[in-house]
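Hi U.,

Before I forget, here's the chain from the pilot set. I'm dumping it here mostly so it's searchable later in email.
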Amino acid sequence: MTETIAMHMSDGLLNAPTSLLFVAVAVVGVGVALAKARGDLDDRTAPMAGLVAAFVFATQMLNFPVLPGVSGHLLGGALAAILVGPWVGALCVTIVLVLQSLLFADGGVTALGANVTNMALIGTATGYLVAMALRRFARRGKGGIAAVAFVSALVNTVVASCGFVLEYAIGGQGGVSLGTVAAAIVGVHVLIGVGEGLITAATVTAVSAVRPDLVYLLRGTEQKLELRA
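Structure:
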């Protein structure tokens, strides 16, 4: 279980009906994101989306230790949502997950629907909603945007892990009780969320310091941020 707690879900953790159910959920969710993303893509967002996808892909390949024998990596949902918006962000994370599953066997192919649901859909949506709820603090300069990014990423990680717990409750076949899985998954992902928050805060702060106009969350607030920085 320690190898699956902080990583992509592998094959065999969910039964076939549950895997197929979340393939359907992922297809519908990504389809909606595709339709909605058209309104967000412009001369600023399109190049940024490519950079975000490349960054998330690279950082997901790097693990950081959180406990003895347990490591974590960037999920990227909050980061993508803050930089390019929830719809484009969900597509960026989805592309990363598909490539990693098919080319690097990082995450099982049968679990791809669940992984996309958790990290690309639930994670990105959660990160965006938290960031928008705290957006007024992001206008207060570098410290504000860093704090908002950190909290958004932390919450995104924990909520995404709860998606796994739900999926395991529906059709888990790992041979471990639901209570044990929930305690282990959520507990470890609180720690992983701290690492995710630090990486997200550092990245968003660096981008906003140079080009606040490229940060989706700050659109319309660039001048206020510069005055308070």
